[in-house]
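hi! just following up on the protien thing from before. the input was this:
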Amino acid sequence: MSGATATPSLFPLQNGGDPVLLPEHITELTGLDQFGLAGELLATFVAAFIVGNFILAMTGVAGPWAKRKITASFTDRIAVNHLGPGGIGIIIADAVRLLAKENIIPENVDRPAYDLAPIVIAGSAMLGFAVIPMGSGIHLADPEVGLAFVFAVAGIASIGLVMAGYASGNKYSLLGGLRAVAQNVAYEIPLVVTGMSVVLFAGSLQMSTIVDAQQQTLFTIPGLEWAVPAWFALVNPFAFVLFLIANFAEVGRNPFDMPEAPAELIAGYQTEYSSVYFVLVYLGEFLHIFLGGAIIATIFLGGPAGPGPDELGILWFTLKIWGVFFLTQWLRSAVPRVRIDQLIEIGWKGLLVLSFANLGLTAAIVGVIA
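and the predicted 3d structure came back as:
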């Protein structure tokens, strides 16, 4: 750990030492350590392949199927029900339908930026999962600046949205790209500032340290002998709510889906995309929803912590991510879209002020108690 000075923590850690990462597990199980650097690189590639496919599988279920089913439940409709049990076969049908379509590229696009934008949008979210501890030994990397790394790579998606909007040569796409910039700038600062209040509690930016700090007991319910964990959502529920709202705006879900706004902008920055390019843009949107859920689960909900043995960690972590996804779809069905001026005002005049107030109060509490 390169001798870095540790910040005092309000919640002392239970688990000492660095976690064993998934590439290290694979190296030991397969004997790749005898091949030196080449073996380590191969083990890292295999670990990334496992994590990437796990995330893509969840996204593949969420986009074509779960989103429709949840929305239908809230709006008293049936949704997909013909292909397979409960309509689950729509996942394969949609994949074949979209990938089989012709990739239509307008004549006036800025081709390099137009081609790269979908990759940037989807790839930035996939990078974020590299430092997320998912439990059951599924953790690719654990740098000391893990939380800062997640925020940094997730913010790259804003560049992809601008590229898509500008390069499409369409006024609706351009407006969608400009709205995306305004929205992400307005809500990225409250998101990061609120996340820093968690860092003050944990005393570190390292994701595994933040998870370990939440393994303490906050209090015990008398008579039931039930220990309530010191999850930061319970320690500081105000910060948890602020982070949730800012995250919804960052991933562009209702009531903050202004960059798309179908009734006004057709589909915003993705209007001119079709076939595999549309799949990548659409995939990137849901990848960022799941990345937001993974960050929330990690820094506020104890990460993979839950009842039962540690081997169930990946199960609890997955349920927490899906819980956040369910909440996004709930809001999508229940809350009307705000106007663009209201969206900016909420970010700059509301969340920004409240996030700094929360940070100052948290710093005062940690400074006095710790």
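DSSP finds 13 helices and two strands in the chain.
Confidence is low (pLDDT under 50) at residues 1-6, 12-16.
cheers
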